Amino acid sequence: MKDGQVVSCSPHEITKAPLHYNQHGAATTASEEKETATMRTSPEQLAFLVQFLHSPECTERSSYKTADCKGKKRSWLSDILAGGTQPVLHLKHNKEKLFSMYHKKCEETGEKPIGRTLFYNGLTAANFHQLTEMAGLCNICAESGAENFDCLNKLAEKLELHWLQNNKGQCPIFNIKERAKSLKGYLLGDFSNHLKNHDECASHCMEWCLSDKPQCGDDHINNCLNCNERWLIVEDLRNTVDQLNCLSEDKDTLKSEIGIIEDNLSKYISHLIRGKYQRDCYMKEVANLEPGPAIGVSDYMMKLMFRRLYEPQKYRFGKKRSFCSWCDVSLQGGKGRAHIDRIP
């Protein structure tokens, strides 16, 4: 009873009542002060974890987004970082992958890692976002990326069916789908972390991939097995077609499909490399901005639309003109002019 009125109370609230009484006393409300997490962690462990999560291999700091890390949107990790409003950090991997990387890093450096549950709970704060939530797929990512891998899987199924009908023994590409899935995961995850302006591996050297006349020339002594898988998969598909006991016209049709998949795969990888190069150039320009002259900065990755519209651009006409995907714009004050730099 409260002021002569019957107040509903759930069984869960009845169960929590003794705990509330012990923590806050009778006839009181819960304090809005930050709760102190009981953790058996040293300051060195916490400092190492914060440094790890802020590294480029794990997260990407948003240049314009912030998140309110209060109440239910907070975690023990956000409390350590002063709580309140904090910059959004886009996670480049899922939590399981990040914890595996963290544990491996601890083994390499001799640091004592924290537990898996504590690690996961720290990433529940509102400022930690999955990188896939930043925006919808652009046309190239949708058509040459996701849809192209679907076409590869369908072609693999078609080749296996041809093999069962016309050939004997096990099909040579029985595991092609698993290999394609691993390649797709690599391109979406670790590939961008390996890209550098200059690298001894040609697949990781942005200068060599994007320039007609790279300064580094053709001297690249290293190879990446994960990157080489893109050519090995296409080569195995073609070899399987050559071994099929079918009409030459059918083989030509299958080979043309393989050629389309190969071209789209090259286009998609080039798009990823170009995006990484643009992002590096943009962050370099932002880092070198001097206080005062810059009035505003437009991020080429900024999406000026509602989250409900995040989808492949080809499905919505207006969306194609709702963001700037190739330039870095800064308005210069004092001189009364606008300065626009195009990033190739």
Topology:
Layout: H1 11-24, H2 43-53, E1 59-69, H3 76-80, E2 84-91, H4 95-109, H5 116-122, E3 128-130, H6 139-166, H7 176-188, H8 190-194, H9 206-210, H10 225-243, H11 248-287, E4 294-298, E5 327-332, E6 337-342
Parallel strand pairs: 2-3
Antiparallel strand pairs: 1-2, 4-5, 5-6
Helix pairs in contact: 6-7, 6-11, 7-10, 10-11
Tally of DSSP helical segments: 11
Q: What gyration radius follows from the Cα positions, in whole Å?
A: 27 Å
Please state the structural category.
mainly alpha
Q: Mean pLDDT across all residues, rounded? A: 75
Q: Count the beta strands.
A: 6
Could you tell me the strand content as a percent range?
5-15%
Biggest sheet: strand arrangement: 1-2-3
* SSE string: HHEHEHHEHHHHHHEEE
Domains counted in the coordinates: how many? 3
Q: Brief description of this entry?
A:
This protein has helices at 11-24, 43-53, 76-80, 95-109, 116-122, 139-166, 176-188, 190-194, 206-210, 225-243, 248-287, and strands at 59-69, 84-91, 128-130, 294-298, 327-332, 337-342. It is built from 11 helices and 6 strands.
Overall description:
With 344 residues, this protein is mainly α. It folds into three domains: 38-133, no CATH class; 139-282, no CATH class; 283-342, no CATH class. Helix content is 47%, strand content 11%. The protein is built from eleven helices and six strands. It has helices at residues 11-24, 43-53, 76-80, 95-109, 116-122, 139-166, 176-188, 190-194, 206-210, 225-243, 248-287; strands at residues 59-69, 84-91, 128-130, 294-298, 327-332, 337-342. β5 (327-332) and β6 form a beta hairpin. The longest helix has 40 residues, at 248-287.
